[in-house]
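Regression test case RT-17, inverse folding.

Input:
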């Protein structure tokens, strides 16, 4: 075969690398909203089942203009940030210790395995007894619910670090701390951040559950009040706020991944 007729071979080294195509996600959201709007207006979807998206947006706008949005959103964000920060930071620390030290692993892994399957919402009455009906029980529930999946994801990520890289560092005479700082922690970071996505989603769920018990303001209290009045527009407006909160949390984790994981190709 002559050189002129030879076909170039495309570079395959970047295969299986995900690309972000943002307009597809926006298109899916818009399409679902348009289908729901058409279905409710045409009567194909009962108004007792699903409100019109346009009415939900009007309710959201009224909530914003009246100032009630920030009265409910402010306490929820405070509870979520404090509780999730405590749970995630302690969870990452304990997970790293489990991954690095055999004695700590032997002592704590059975304990983590015992408390991990417990539905955290079921522990809310116990936290109320321990910490009272105020903010303490809400912080504790969110922190505990964030802690357990973060621990599991962290020590699993540490275990999955390529041992060849660790042996290579040892062969070059790196100290134990240098290997942990330069090889183990960077290698475990993708798994830790993936675990944080799940942990923070659980934190939002627990936030709503905690605010449905003894909270005057908060997204959970707002949804509970709307549900008791069977006000679907307000109910779905609260769900919309939670959805937006989840999207923002996911975007923040994605930003952290892009900044911390630049070494990945």
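Golden output:
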């Amino acid at each position: 075969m002559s050189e002129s007729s030879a076909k170039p071979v495309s570079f395959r080294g970047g295969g299986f690398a995900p690309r972000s195509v943002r307009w597809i996600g926006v298109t899916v959201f818009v399409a679902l909203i348009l289908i729901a709007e058409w279905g409710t207006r045409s009567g194909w979807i009962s108004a007792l089942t699903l409100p019109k998206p346009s009415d939900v947006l009007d309710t959201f706008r009224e909530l914003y203009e009246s100032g009630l949005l920030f009265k409910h959103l402010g306490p929820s964000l405070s509870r979520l940030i404090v509780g999730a920060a405590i749970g995630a930071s302690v969870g990452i620390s304990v997970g790293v210790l489990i991954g690095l030290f055999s004695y700590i692993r032997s002592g704590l892994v059975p304990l983590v395995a015992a408390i991990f399957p417990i539905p955290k919402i079921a522990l809310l009455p116990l936290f109320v007894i321990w910490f009272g009906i105020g903010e303490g029980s809400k912080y504790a529930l969110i922190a505990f619910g964030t802690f357990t999946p973060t621990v599991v994801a962290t020590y699993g990520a540490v275990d999955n670090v390529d041992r060849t890289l660790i042996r290579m560092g040892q062969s070059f005479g790196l100290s134990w701390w240098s290997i942990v700082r330069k090889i183990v922690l960077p290698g475990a970071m993708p798994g830790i951040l993936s675990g944080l996505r799940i942990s923070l989603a659980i934190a939002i769920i627990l936030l709503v559950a905690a605010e449905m018990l003894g909270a005057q303001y908060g997204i959970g209290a707002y949804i509970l009040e709307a549900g008791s009045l069977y006000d679907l527009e307000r109910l779905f407006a609260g769900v919309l706020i939670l959805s937006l909160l989840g999207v923002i949390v996911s975007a923040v984790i994605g930003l952290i991944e892009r900044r911390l994981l630049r070494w990945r190709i």
